[in-house]
Amino acid sequence: MTTPVTIIGAGLGGLVLSRVLHTHGIPSVVYEAESSPSARTQGGLLDIRDYNGQPALETAGLTKEFRELVLAGRQALRLLDRDGHVLLEVPDDGTGGNPEVQRGELRQLLLDSLPAGTVHWGHKVGGVRSLGDGRHEVTFADGSTVTTSLLVGADGAWSRVRPLLSAATPEYTGIGFVETHLFDGDHRHPTSAKTVGGGAMMVLEPGKGILAHRERGGNLHTWVMLARSREWFAGIDFTDPALAFEATARIVKEFDGWAPELTTLVTAGETAPVLRTIHTLPAEHRWDRTPGVTLLGDAAHLTVPNGEGANLAMYDGAELGRAIAAHPGDVETALADYEQAMFPRSAAAAAEAPDLYVMLGEGTPHTLINTVTGS
Asked: Most CB atoms within 10 A, among 58, 95, 101, 113?
């Protein structure tokens, strides 16, 4: 191809696609709503799976660089009860196939692997329309437009490209995550740091739980998980930093009686609590082949958090890049091949995704213990 592939969204999937295209000499342009790479924090640790995420990075020619980002020991897992007693401990002996890296560092690696100017920051999509014959026009919030003969929606759960292909919209699962951080935990919050351990820690009870990860520098990244209605969360103001204390107090009230080393992960948070309501697309989400446009990652197959989302997005990007490179001058064959493989792959991943209501249901935490131990 001589005209650039237009990619909406500079997440991991869109950037892997751009990188793979670049390695094949195919130009691309990535449009991203965020104003810069540092406009916001980029999530926490990602376990990069040996059957999708790692092969995607190998296709992108970045395995060596990826390995340099791996945080040793972070595949360790401990499951505690509300009193802080250990129910299950799984050490990281170095043989696991899912090494952990910081999402932001991985994203920066991908950005650094692209030619300067590939990503156009501050381009929030206002709308997309078909011009016929496989061509599409993208309109940005500032009124500018771009026309393309190959459009890829890599723009996440609330994709503005998806409506070209599908009427599906994400549905609320009934569960919300509230995110916060403790920095330099080993020195500033040693009791909580010791409780979290060397990798991931989980405390689960019916309808609620606390999950924490040890990140680079001993930072502790915490998610509170609550099975609550939209209306319940709407009663808490997460948008005003001045009300962060009140929001935190309301959340931690749900954990009355839990060990202080656990609740401190929430009450001592050094960032304002951020609400992330969990939505999904239908497990069998697919669309008819539509000329000149396709989707990848969460735009195509949004599921509950299960460690697969980022890995699948990168794999989608790598496979789409390979398909385009394998069919020069024949966009429709490339997109058809990609989608025919992606649909069953994403459906299988969605079917295997853990049911958060099971994780937070009446059988917890024993359901997770049985899953991890295979008993």
From this structure: 101
The pTM score is 0.95
Q: What is the pLDDT of residue 232?
A: 97
For residue 346, the 8-state DSSP code is H
Q: Which of 9, 30, 8 is nearest to 18 (CA)?
A: 30
**What pLDDT was estimated at residue 95?**
81
3-state secondary structure of 218: helix
Q: In whole angstroms, what separates CA 289 from the centre of its chain?
A: 26
Q: From the centroid of its chain, how far is CA 338?
A: 21
Spatial CA neighbour of 323 closest among 8, 24, 11: 24
The amino acid at 253? K
- Residue 313 to residue 296: CA distance in whole angstroms: 6
What is residue 100's three-state secondary structure?
strand
Token couple for 358: 């099971």
**What residues have CB less than 8 Å from 122, skipping those under 6 apart?**
32, 33, 34, 35, 36
User: What is the full DSSP assignment across 267-313?
Assistant: HT-SS--EEEEEEE--TT------TTEEE-THHHH---SSS-HHHHH
Q: How would residue 369 be classed by pLDDT, with cut points 50, 70 and 90?
A: confident
CB within 8 Å of 147: residues ≥ 6 apart: 131, 135, 136, 137, 138
DSSP state of 4: P
User: Over the stretch 350-359, which tens digit does the pLDDT of each residue have?
Assistant: 877 665 666 7
How many Cβ atoms sit within 10 Å of the Cβ of residue 268? 17
Output the DSSP codes for 26-76: --EEEE-SSSSTTSS---SEEE--TTTHHHHHHHTT-HHHHHTT-BTTTT-
* End-to-end C-alpha distance for the chain, whole angstroms: 52
With CA atoms as reference, report the closest residue to 262 among 66, 29, 81. Answer: 81
Query: DSSP H helical segments within the chain, as ranges?
Result: 12-23, 53-59, 63-67, 103-112, 185-188, 190-196, 230-234, 244-252, 260-267, 298-301, 309-326, 331-352, 356-359, 366-373
